[in-house]
């Protein structure tokens, strides 16, 4: 009975853990763009990093 | 596309504060930085001084070396030669087949020279351009250096 219960637990948990693992693996970094130079400059000064400014045209 | 690439996003997040401006948004920044084509990418300090720029789409394997090179040029112009040398050498060592590598090697030599007025370091760096990148314009710029 105990063996049967453990088997059921493993089988029922498997899809959850598999889904969690898949979700974790698919997380890729994204770029959070600032929208104004003032905001970017404030963060750049605080973080002691340069600003990467990308001028784009909407497609 | 370049920005969705994980390595590109990581590099930008680790090294920059990213700012994106739509040139059709009415922002004054395109005029201020004389932007006439997109994409135009600039590296600025927090006081809005421009240190490096390039235009046009690049795939990730060229985009990241360009950004690394831009960081090196920024350090060089700020006369922080130790950091400049480190960043420029990294371009050549990590991305030796990238299109920016010969130029990085050129400025690496300049940085080494400016750091300690070491002529041998300059000539050694430049000879490496002739040897490793003989068909680049940077090899022509140092073609007068004896092997």
**What is the SS-derived class of chain B?**
mainly alpha
Instruction: Indicate the low-confidence ranges of chain B by residue numbers.
Output: none
Separation, N- and C-terminal Cα atoms of chain A: 63 Å
Largest sheet of chain B: 2 strands, antiparallel
Q: Could you tell me which chain pair has the largest interface and how many residues each side has?
A: A-B, 28 and 36 residues
Backbone CA Rg of chain A: 23 Å
Q: Report the strand count of chain A.
A: 1
DSSP strand content of chain B: 5-15%
Radius of gyration of chain B using CA atoms only? 17 Å
For the biggest β-sheet of chain B, the strand order reads: 2-3
What is the terminal separation of chain B in angstroms?
42 Å
Q: Report the total helices of chain B.
A: 7
Order of helices and strands of chain B: HEHEEHHHHH
List the helices and strands and how they pair.
The complex is a heterodimer of chains A (59) and B (147).
Chain A: H1 2-26, H2 37-47, E1 51-56
Chain B: H1 6-15, E1 17-22, H2 29-32, E2 40-44, E3 50-55, H3 60-77, H4 81-94, H5 101-116, H6 119-132, H7 137-141
Antiparallel strand pairs in B: 2-3
Short structural description:
The complex is a heterodimer of chains A (59) and B (147). Chain A has helices spanning 2-26, 37-47, and one strand at 51-56. Chain A is mainly α and 59 residues long.
């Amino acid at each position: 009975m105990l063996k049967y219960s453990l088997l059921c637990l493993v089988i029922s948990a498997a899809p959850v853990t598999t889904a969690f693992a898949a979700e974790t693996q698919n997380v890729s970094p994204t770029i959070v763009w600032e929208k104004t130079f003032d905001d970017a400059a404030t963060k750049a000064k605080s973080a002691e990093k340069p600003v990467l400014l990308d001028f784009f045209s909407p497609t | 596309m370049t920005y969705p690439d994980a390595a590109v996003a990581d590099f930008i997040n680790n090294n920059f504060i990213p700012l994106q401006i739509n040139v059709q948004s009415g922002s004054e920044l395109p005029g201020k930085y004389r932007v006439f084509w997109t994409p135009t990418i600039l590296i600025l300090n927090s006081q809005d001084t421009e240190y490096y720029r390039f235009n046009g789409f690049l795939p990730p394997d060229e985009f990241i070396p360009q950004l690394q090179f831009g960081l090196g040029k920024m350090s060089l112009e700020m006369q922080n030669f130790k950091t400049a040398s480190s960043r420029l050498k990294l371009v050549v060592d990590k991305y030796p087949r990238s299109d920016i590598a010969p130029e990085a090697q050129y400025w690496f030599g300049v940085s080494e020279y400016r750091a300690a007025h070491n002529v041998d370091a300059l000539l050694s760096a430049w000879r490496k351009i002739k040897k490793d990148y003989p068909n680049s314009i940077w090899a022509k710029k140092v073609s007068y250096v004896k092997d």
